[in-house]
């Protein structure tokens, strides 16, 4: 099996993880760590639900992989993620010594693999993860677009309540008087 075919297959699994994030109301980003051609850990965005600003998909997958391996160094591992990592995640990827990073959609606002900055291209750093971007780009980008369209639609103000008509009686209060008493 070619590397491109393998990348597509693993990205499909990362997209499945992104759907898990969406299902719990998080931005749909999914990730997985692969070692020796096998998925050893997965993760999806969950910073809102966990009240943890570091709970990005990449970080969660790397934490699970490190716990499984028993080492914070993930030297023989590849990381697949549906969205270009941010600076925080890129730094963690470098510290973990991930061998290869494969991402789907670029992130023009916070991407740290070339879209805004490229932390992996700095020759002063002592570890250089191989980066491949653009795997299943359209599917990964569409998932994010659809999520934000749905979120905006859900959060948009509702249509105003219909005005009362003169031929309708006002609702009964059954003799209950509402008042505010600050004391």
What does this entry show, briefly?
The chain has helices spanning 3-23, 47-50, 57-69, 87-96, 137-155; strands at residues 30-35, 38-44, 77-83, 100-105, 130-132. By secondary structure, the chain is of the alpha/beta class. A hairpin with a 2-residue loop joins strand 1 and strand 2.
List keywords for this structure.
183 residues; alpha/beta; five-stranded mixed β-sheet; 5 helices; 37% helix; disordered C terminus
Explain what the structure shows.
- The chain is of the alpha/beta class and about 180 residues long.
- The protein has helices spanning about 5-25, 45-50, 55-70, 85-95, 135-155, and strands at about 30-35, 40-45, 75-85, 100-105, 130.
- A five-stranded mixed β-sheet has the order 2-1-3-4-5.
- The radius of gyration is 23 Å and the shape is globular.
- It starts with a helix and ends in a 28-residue tail after the last helix.
- About 35% of the residues are buried.
Q: How would you summarize the topology of this molecule?
A:
Layout: H1 3-23, E1 30-35, E2 38-44, H2 47-50, H3 57-69, E3 77-83, H4 87-96, E4 100-105, E5 130-132, H5 137-155
Parallel strand pairs: 3-4, 4-5
Antiparallel strand pairs: 1-2, 1-3
Helix pairs in contact: 1-5
